[in-house]
Specification:
- The complex is a heterotrimer of chains A (446), B (252) and C (419).
- By secondary structure, chain A is α+β, with helices and mostly antiparallel strands.
- Chain A has 16 helices and ten strands.
- Chain A folds into two domains: 2-42 and 301-445, no CATH class; 68-258, no CATH class.
- The radius of gyration of chain A is 32 Å and the shape is elongated.
- The two termini of chain A are 26 Å apart.
- Chain B has a domain at 2-104 and 180-251: P-loop containing nucleotide triphosphate hydrolases (Rossmann fold).
- In chain B, helix 6 (164-175) runs parallel beside helix 7 (194-211).
- Chain C is built from 16 helices and eleven strands.
- Chain C has helices spanning 2-9, 11-47, 66-74, 110-113, 119-122, 142-145, 157-163, 210-216, 243-246, 249-262, 271-314, 316-324, 329-350, 352-370, 381-407, 411-416, and strands at 53-56, 79-93, 101-108, 152-156, 170-174, 182-190, 205-209, 221-224, 227-230, 236-241, 267-270.
- By secondary structure, chain C is of the alpha+beta class.
- Chain C has two domains: 2-44 and 277-416, no CATH class; 58-265, no CATH class.
- Classes of the chains: A alpha+beta (446), B alpha/beta (252), C alpha+beta (419).
- Chains in contact: A-B, A-C.
- Chains A and C meet through helix 2, strand 3 and helix 12 of A and helix 2, strand 8, helix 11 and helix 14 of C.
Amino acid sequence: MYALSNLRRRSGRTALTVTGLTLAISLMVVMFSVGNGVRDSARSLLKQSGVDIFVQANGTSLGFANGEFDQSRELANSMIKGNPQIETALPLLMFPMYGMNETMRQAILSVKPGDNSSLANITKTMKIKGMTIDGVVPELIGKLGGVTVLEGSGFTHRNDPFYSNGTYAGGKSSPNFTKEISINKATAKALKVGLNDVIYLNVDLPQKTQDLGTWIANATPFHVVSIVQSAWEGVGTAIAYTHMSELQFLAGKTNDTANQILVSVKDPTHDNQVKEWIKKTYPQLDAFTVEDFLGEIDQVTQVFRGFGEMILLVTGVIVVMFVSTVMMISVRERTSEIAALRAIGFSKSSIFSNILLEVFFIIMIGFIIGIAIGVGMALGLDSYLINMTMNSAAGSGLPAGFHFVSITPLLLGQMGLVAIAFGLLCGLIPAVWAAQLNIAQTLKKE
Amino acid sequence: MKEEKEKVRSKAKKSASAEGLVVLKGVSKFYKMGDTTVTALDKLDLTIKTGELLSVMGPSGSGKSTLLNIIGCIDSPNDGHVSIGGRDVSKLKDSELTKIRLTEIGFIFQQFYLIPTLTAYENIELPMREARLSHEDRLKRVRELLSLVGLTDREKHYPNQLSGGEQQRVAIARALANKPLLILADEPTGELDTKTAMRIIELLKELNRKQGITVIIVTHDPRVANETNRIITLQDGAVLGDSPPLAQKEGN
Amino acid sequence: MMNLKNIMRRGGRTTMTVIAVATSMALLISMQAISDGLLQNARDTIDKSKVDISISVTDGHGIEDGHTMMTTLKTDPRVRYAGIYMTEYIAFKKPGTTKQMWAITEGIVPSETKPLLPPGELDRFPKDNTLGFKESGDPHFVNNFTGSWTFEVLIDKNIGSALGLKKGDPILISRTATGPYMTFNVSGIFDSQLTGGGLAAKLYFMTMHLSELQTLTGNDIFKDANGSRVVDRIDEVSLALQSDLRTVKDKVVAYQKELEAKYPFYQVDTKMDRLVRMEQQMTIVKGFFLAIGGVSLMIGLLFVTCIMFMSILERTNEIGMLRAIGISKGTIFLQILTESMIIVIIGAAIGIIPGYLGSIWGSDYIKSTVGTTENLVLFHIPSVAQLFVEVILLGGLMSLLPAWRAMSIDIIKSLKRVK
């Protein structure tokens, strides 16, 4: 009662102090929550993918998954055979290619030879679109989570028939070269294609408009068998899936080359064991669990986190100086009042706890308002950063569930501890000082 | 009221020594100010009986406030013994002295020292909360005391909404909160005009008369001293005079 | 004089306030210095570049007939040099060992690349021959990639120290982890400006002849059942224009438009485009840094305002008395404002050196965490001076309220006032 009433006594100064605290707490909320989001989003997306272990060429890190290795299917099959814990091992080749739709192709082919200006006009309104192709074995990708079929029935041939007997016999003309493709919504939108439409794919872009004819002649037509969505694809990022051997062939990687093998284990508590087994058994490969992945993300965000911690420490010091000085002055103004309370029978501990309570009240008000503002600012920053990455490269962005910022009970708990630490640091000295006042001398001075 | 007086007296009787409620023997208090030692009280002996109404006078620096502080357990003597209600308080710990101040002694100050952000009710209630009285007991007691000091209609007023006299009455009510044996008033009328001052003294006299509470008033004002039954005059930390007021003497 | 005395009257609280302002100023200066440093770094990289126009594709690979394109562009009298590049991720290891590592490998035509390197970057490469290469052309490209191999490769110093390799030593290189490996010779060692630690710990760099990299990675010829064709795939073309042309912005932009029309599927950027894009991004980063510093500064200045209010309260009688004896409101106002400003100015001034030290610490921290050797801080005196003035002005603004409060004190009430 006494503590709270004292806050009202000097409401202006209380307001200023609370404002200072609010600024500090909201800054802390923003700094703590940014970076947490990256980790939490990554964890959630990885969980949805169903992948427990990422296998890559030895010496690469997850940030650079471009290292390649050959005989990927043989490796994947031997993993499944060699370790009963392994449920699925999906080799994957990611490779960028360019696509054109049928409308554009027809328009180009209908132009008279040598009529470059007509060709140029066509390219102004119709585009060849770049996309990332994931070469997969369809039956295996179905076993992992995270890919949802939105339209269509998917690949008719599920076991990658072009790779029969480990050869790529017959090239594009082979009857086993299915030319099936599954695309995501961003690809469908960019190319203005839908289910059962044809996309013409090439590894490169034409150099000049007059090369379009040659480009088309060299392109491989793929027909769209399904429209899919995966949890980890960037919003607006064009992705497509083909049979792995067909992509390998077009990319000139006909030693069954892959960038990664995605592994799921039967019992997730054994993933470290399986990881170590893979590393030991296949020295040309390296394996990373989800935790390793998150650890790499942490390494990257470490730069920001370290900075953030230093900034917060400095801000915290300023705030503690602010609040403790104001409290000290406030207590000194009231020495005679405090001495009178001691004279009428208030114990030292009562005085001590009342002063400390006053400080805690101020901290709590600042904390509540600061959290509210900080959460608002953090969410605003999140949306800003997501928009920025959306607009930074043509059409690419982060996965839909991805956030830079994460507000969790843990964060609020951390802020609570900060508030308590502030309270103690700011309140202890004035409280002790007030409790130790010499009653007689103080009253004598009056 | 008579019941109240009897309760206080029996409490005082039980705890008072044969000699008196407050007994000071050979009490000395000095302060170091740089290289100089200032003697505030010099081997002072004093006995105060239960139910007395006395004043302490003397020039500035005579030791009046120091005496009050020692009796009030705010300060401890350097030498000598002090007993309150038969108990030697000279060497008690701070927490024990605090308890005595809370339950057995009531303080009234020249500057009132009311908490400006608490109402009259809340100011009076403050010591009762410290003494952990229940809400119902506090409510009853505060209302009683407000009635006693004539401020029932001012319960919800803040100190800055009360006149000087009213503030001091609230302070008196606060001092009575936990039914003390002894009231110590340090220049209680110093900030008040004459008429109001006299009203306050009348109130203190009434408390002494009707409830048997021992009242010690430190004052510069001879008119205030003359209202009491005994005037102790201090000089240089020692008792210079100890007698009834002149009017009473002459009357006798 | 009176102002100073008043401030020193409560030395403890004044000291705390000054320290708080100094601390927040130091933080703000550090943030500014680091963000300015990052911006300047990025700007310098582009500014010093000798590449006036770059032609690339947004998704990485995708330019065919790279060598032909280089030759064609060089026939244009406006073009001085045309460098062509490809970047691939390549496995390497020391002969006789099994542990392979990976390097970001750039394929270049040395004679076209060397003139395009700015002086600072040129110094990082060996000075003998053409960037350390004995062969300055790209002989393997001749006759549809049947020409002779040089087997020359430049490695960065981190590879050198990791594998204990020096100039002239053999190194095994392959497209995949499993091989087959080809033996190349280390023609030279260059400085990648990475320490080999921090985030960049696993980043290694190599440079080799473009056609050899193309063949190594299957970007030379596409083989089908129906035959084969030369693809000669590259990632980027960098053009340096003639010296009389490159400084005339309109001419550069006109040439850019010509190239865009000629190569409509590629991205054609001038140096200015790259600079504008970079500055847009860095401005956001700088804004973020300064916002953080700004919040701390606000807290520090709020502290000053609060303390000034408390000080006025304590001196209410004194101020009332001054007014009573004839001191004007304006004088009181200026008095309080000056006191407040003195605290802000002293605090801000004291904060400059810690700010400088803080920016050094911040830069060292980023360098060690990222693993770069480049200097990342720009402690620019004019910028600091500007910031100082801005802080003083803001401090002044926040001091207006207490000064106004002091000026508005009612004389009678203040003289009657009991604490």
